[in-house]
Amino acid sequence: MVGILPLFVVLLIIVSFAMVVAVPVILATPGEWEKSQGIVWSGAGLWSALVILTGVFNAVPA
Predict the structure, then answer these.
(1) What is the CATH number of the domain that holds 16?
(2) How far, in Å, CA of 50 to CA of 54, rounded?
(3) pTM summary value
(4) In Å, how far from its chain's centre is CA 12?
(5) 1-30: string of b/e by CB count within 10 Å (b at 16+)?
(6) 38 is in which domain, residue-wise?
(7) Alpha helices in the chain (DSSP H)
(8) pLDDT tens, residue by residue, 12-56
(9) Number of domains in the chain
(10) Which of 4, 7, 12, 23 could disulfide-link to 50, CB 3.0 to 4.6 Å?
């Protein structure tokens, strides 16, 4: 059975990869920042939440 910690780690890796690819493309495309600003901030919030949750679940003894 897969625990919650590996799930958070996999999600963190996926979101990190998506942000590494998407943010430079959005910033480099003229006019795209105005349209995609909410998506970038939502992704940053999701990434931050995953970092915190991963740390919390890693610190809690099993």
Answers:
(1) 1.10.287.740
(2) 6
(3) 0.87
(4) 6
(5) eeeeeeebeebbeebeeeeeeebeebeeee
(6) 4-59
(7) 4-28, 32-59
(8) 999 999 999 999 999 999 999 999 999 999 999 999 999 999 999
(9) 1
(10) 12
